[in-house]
Design a protein that fits this description.
By secondary structure, the chain is an alpha/beta fold. It folds into two domains: 138 residues, Rossmann fold (3-Layer(aba) Sandwich), CATH 3.40.50; 76 residues, no CATH class. 51% of the residues lie in helices and 12% in strands. The chain has ten helices and seven strands. A hairpin with a 2-residue loop joins strand 4 and strand 5. Helix 2 packs antiparallel against helix 7, helix 8 packs antiparallel against helix 9 and helix 9 packs antiparallel against helix 10. It is globular, with a radius of gyration of 19 Å. The mean pLDDT is 89.
């Protein structure tokens, strides 16, 4: 594979305001809204970013280049992000830094068991907290030296990305009645709603997941979710 010009140049040095300068981050995240939040956090921190929305897309990226940091959502449409974490941290030449991410705090243990160097609990919008999480997950020799400016700045992703997530769920429900994808819909919607701070959709997604887990009827849950999703689309994403 031919090298790009950027690959031949020495990486830029991190600064106090951009402590991730010189790093390339691959974010494996199916939610456009959540990945947009991470994209903005990375860019404000100086890192270059690429995105994959599934395990298969991540493997295509990783076959073409090697990022310094991979941030992996645990719930993905084609499998568990924990499997990718395990793969990346147990390669003959492992990725330098792999960080698990989820809106479910219980996924931290799963991520750690798979070999992750750190964990980000969604939603994440505080720039200083994000930088600290990434820097703490890096090997000590890879961390920038010197003082770092700690900021409490918050990042607000574009609501157009949230609209895309709701449209994605609506498409699944319309195309397949969602029956084969209900567990994914519940997990995906709860994660998106946590990032957006939408308590009503969090509760609806949790209700669907609970009823699925105990084998109760879930027709009313699906109808409620379909209505809420259409409502959010009509309102421009905001709940």
């Amino acid at each position: 594979m031919p090298l790009a010009l950027d690959d031949l140049m020495p990486p830029p040095k991190p600064t106090s305001q951009r402590p991730l300068l010189g790093l390339t981050v691959l974010v494996v995240e199916d939610s456009r809204f959540a990945s947009e939040a991470v994209r903005l956090l990375c860019l404000r921190s100086g890192a270059r970013i690429r995105r994959a929305d599934s395990l298969s897309a991540a493997h295509k990226h990783l076959a073409a280049y090697r990022p310094n940091v991979v941030i992996v959502d645990i719930g993905l449409p084609d499998g568990s992000g924990a499997d990718l974490i395990d793969e990346l941290t147990h390669l003959h030449s492992p990725v330098d830094c792999v960080i698990g991410m989820s809106g479910d705090s219980g996924a931290r243990a799963l991520s750690t068991a798979a070999g992750a160097h750190g964990f980000i609990e969604k939603p994440i919008s505080n720039l200083g907290a994000f930088q600290t999480m990434v820097l703490d997950a890096l090997a000590r020799d890879d961390r920038p030296t010197g003082l770092r400016m700690v900021t409490g700045e918050h990042i607000d992703p574009d609501l157009a990305a949230l609209q895309d997530d709701f449209a994605h769920v609506a498409d699944i429900l319309t195309a397949h009645d969602g029956e084969g994808m209900l567990d994914y819909i519940a997990q995906f919607l709860e994660s998106v709603a946590r990032t957006a701070g939408d308590a009503e959709i969090i509760e609806a997604a949790q209700s669907l997941a609970r009823n699925r887990n105990v084998g109760h009827t879930h027709r009313a849950d699906v109808a409620r979710i379909a209505g809420l999703v259409q409502n959010r689309i009509a309102m421009g994403g905001a709940g």
